[in-house]
């Protein structure tokens, strides 16, 4: 009996040990499984996070007065022009954006938000004029057609009529002096058809062809932070420029004998091919001898006004043998001229 009891006790101890080992084994398996589950969950979280777009450093874009879409230029922002500290102007400009350059030395004498993206308004007509003359002669004749109806109701006009026949030079006068949006579309449509080599190309497609060349021209000149959508500069999504780019374009206008002659004129009388007689006055009050803003040194260039761009003017003046270009953007009707006058007077005091 004693031997049986001893054997029974031994068997009981073995069974307890076996159960304990099983419990330890099961706990170990559970712990390993929990760790594996935790690792897998962490991996899934990281995978999800990695699948999200990495944050891109925010690019600062200053819009002028109103919020609107500039579109994607595909270009890096231009670096602010380096100020010529030895000849820097001491002047208080009220406009949102402004820049003054010496066109002979390319030195920047003043700048205020000069590389901010802004709406060009009718100052865009400078690049329209330059592009037209790349493909047309000033003496070429053009007949105004249905394209003059493509403009907005509140547009500035040269009051072209369907059937008017006039030269490219006369259309450029109608474009630059009274700032005719109808002249802009007549030039753009006809030049676009000439570029495409298709006289029957629809007007809208002709505009697209022309505007492609406008933007090519701007980039060639060095105005790399601009995108023009319509030939008259009327506010449009995806359309933008900078004061600095406009100064570059203005310099090219001064280098063109046809455009520089037109923009320096305050009043122009013309008799068109179809016999119509017109007289246009320049919207640039700096050229108006009867205006308090008149300055005899001024030789152009172009005004503009739009809801997004405000009142603007790109002016040029010859002072002490040097040509200066001043872009004043995002201002008011009168302040744009006053800012320009203050800049001219400051240059004279140097």
How would you explain this protein's 3D organization?
The chain is an alpha+beta fold and 350 residues long. It contains eight helices and nine strands. The chain has a five-stranded antiparallel sheet, with helices on both faces. The radius of gyration is 35 Å and the shape is globular. The protein starts with a helix and ends with a helix. This is D-alanyl-D-alanine carboxypeptidase (Penicillin-binding protein 5/6). Belongs to the peptidase S11 family. Substrate binds at residue 302.
Sequence-ordered SSE layout with sheet pairings:
Blueprint (H helix, E strand, L loop, with lengths): L1 H50 L45 E6 L5 E5 L12 H11 L5 E3 L21 E3 H9 L4 H16 L6 H19 L21 H13 L1 H7 L3 E5 L5 E5 L16 E9 L3 E10 L2 E10 L3 H14 L2
Antiparallel strand pairs: 1-2, 1-9, 3-4, 5-6, 7-8, 8-9
Helix pairs in contact: 2-3, 2-4, 2-5, 2-6, 3-4, 3-7, 4-5
Features:
about 350 residues, 5-stranded antiparallel β-sheet, Beta-lactamase, alpha+beta, two-stranded antiparallel sheet, protease
């Amino acid at each position: 009996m004693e031997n049986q009891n001893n054997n029974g006790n031994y068997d009981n101890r073995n069974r307890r040990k076996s159960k304990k080992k099983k419990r330890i084994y099961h706990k170990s398996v559970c712990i390993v499984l929990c760790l594996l589950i935790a690792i897998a969950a962490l991996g899934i979280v990281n995978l999800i996070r990695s699948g999200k777009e990495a944050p891109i450093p925010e690019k600062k874009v200053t819009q002028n007065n109103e919020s609107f879409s500039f579109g994607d230029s595909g270009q890096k922002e231009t670096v602010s022009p380096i100020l010529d500290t030895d000849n820097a102007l001491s002047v208080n400009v009220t406009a949102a954006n402004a820049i003054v350059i010496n066109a002979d030395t390319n030195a920047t004498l003043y700048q205020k938000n000069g590389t901010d993206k802004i709406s060009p308004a009718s100052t865009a007509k400078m690049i329209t004029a330059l592009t037209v003359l790349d493909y047309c002669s000033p003496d070429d004749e053009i007949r105004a057609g249905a394209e003059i109806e493509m403009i907005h109701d509140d547009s500035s006009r040269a009051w072209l009529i369907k059937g008017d026949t006039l030269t490219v030079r006369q259309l450029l006068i109608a474009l630059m002096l009274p700032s005719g949006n109808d002249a802009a579309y007549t030039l753009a449509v006809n030049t676009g058809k000439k570029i495409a080599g298709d006289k029957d190309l629809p007007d809208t497609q002709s505009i697209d062809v022309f505007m492609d060349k406008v933007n090519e021209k701007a980039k060639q000149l060095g105005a790399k932070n601009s995108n023009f959508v319509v030939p008259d500069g009327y506010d449009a999504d995806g359309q933008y420029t900078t004061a600095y780019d406009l100064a570059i374009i203005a310099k090219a206008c001064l280098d063109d004998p046809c455009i520089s002659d037109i923009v320096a004129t305050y009043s122009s009388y013309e008799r068109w091919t179809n016999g119509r007689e017109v007289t246009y006055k320049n919207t640039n009050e700096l050229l108006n001898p009867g205006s308090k803003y008149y300055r005899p040194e001024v030789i152009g260039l172009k005004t503009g006004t739009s809801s997004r761009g405000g009142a603007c003017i790109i002016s040029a003046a010859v002072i002490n043998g040097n040509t200066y270009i001043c872009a004043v953007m995002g201002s008011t009707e009168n302040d744009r001229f006053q800012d320009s006058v203050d800049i001219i007077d400051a240059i004279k005091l140097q």
